[in-house]
Amino acid sequence: MKYHHNVRICAWLLTLCTALPLVTACGGDGGSDTVTAERTEAVTDAAVETEPLDALEARKLVDDELGEYDFGGYEFRVMVSEAGGRKNTIWVEGLSGDVVDDAVFERNSAVEERFNCKITLGAEYQNYSKLSPLLTKSVKAGDDVYDLLSFHVVGLGELALNNYFYNWYDIPNIDFDKPWWSDSTVNDLTYNGVCPIAVGDMALSALSAAYCVFYNKKLGEDYDFPDLYEVVEQGAWTIDRVVALTKGIYVDLNGNGTVDTQEDLFGYVSDCNSNLAAYLWAFDNPVFRREGDVMEYSYKTEKISEMVTKLCGIFSMYDGIKFDKAHVNPEGRGNHDYGRDQFAKGHAVLSNGYISMSLTHFRELEDEYGILPYPKWDEAQENYYTMSDGNHEALAVPKTVQNIEAVGTITEALCAESYKILVPAYYDVALKVKSTRDEQSIAMLDRIVDSRVFDFGFVYHASKGAAFLIQDLVNTNNSNFESTYAKKEKAITKHYNNVIEFFETYGE
Fold this sequence. Notes:
14 strands
């Protein structure tokens, strides 16, 4: 199965960015001419009768076809995660001068004025685990207290299996053919005509939490690295290439004769959590693949044992490649800090992490840096792939909602306006202009976002599936995949059989 969304990203250049050339190849497929042709099919006649429009204006002309509604001041209540400031992508109090916050305010104001509604935070929680008892209580009591959940995708996946959410295909005015919905919503998260969880542009962290590799260009020059952008374009950016370049790069910066993971300089650094899980998809070994109309459990492949062995060796054998388990939570620090902080200090040539780190943590980095995709397994692998961390937001509608027409209409409008206003502000202004330091990194951003995988077996992992097994094995340097999997296989396959049964019997 080939995962790509070649019509989703490549034309996202604002008017003020017209000096930047359009990317001519995204996710290994098609060029800007193809993207323009595909996207303008959905644009109004006015967009094609005159001379070509810039990309932003073309986006604004995509018709959401929602028509006219007056919802009489309906309060649209969104439950959102407060973690990482993500509630600010749903609601802000007013204009502040911040380009992304202002885009959120403009989007919400446009929808509120158009449909006579009021968008509010129905609830906000730092820890997604608190959602389960709250939602369970409200659904069982039949209380209509939340209209939309914009929340941790894996947390939503577990809740969905309790039959708490509407099927998005049963919600009025939702159109997954529109460009503000991820292609994966249809291709990877829909089975048997059922889709309880969707990924739309309103859920901005599905973009910002996509995994990538950051590259300190100054240090790369010091160690005679080749042009890594060219390596990527040649299809030669593989895990073996990463190892060959970085395994011998170690400097005892504090001169104490001891390897200090937080003080010394390394070739490649990583965190020990989902940064490691991301290799499963980067190496084109998803948990599920769609074959026609069938979702097939595809996790146990011939190469997966070799993948685990290789990754365990990489992170245990070489002086230049490190992750630091002690850094995870000695003082309440998060799970994604080590690689990020090492890179921000200029203590790593390469580090994996989220796209958003370029905006939140690397803006003060003095060295020039670039952004690369996760490496492929080998050169025979056709495409680069990545995943968005499991804490990214996705969208679900509780079954207790009474005015489902209002909820469907407002959600569709919010995703549409996010596509037209919010995503360009974040991606093109906040990232492409403010944070990235070169035009080639802009091309890489397009490639990375294009290559995101939203795996059925990951979203519906529910603490019982296989999505994080590779992470756990590498984390503990346990390269014996076969015996570990043999012990877990029965429980894993039982869980996924239950997931499939849920989708096949939904609504009965």
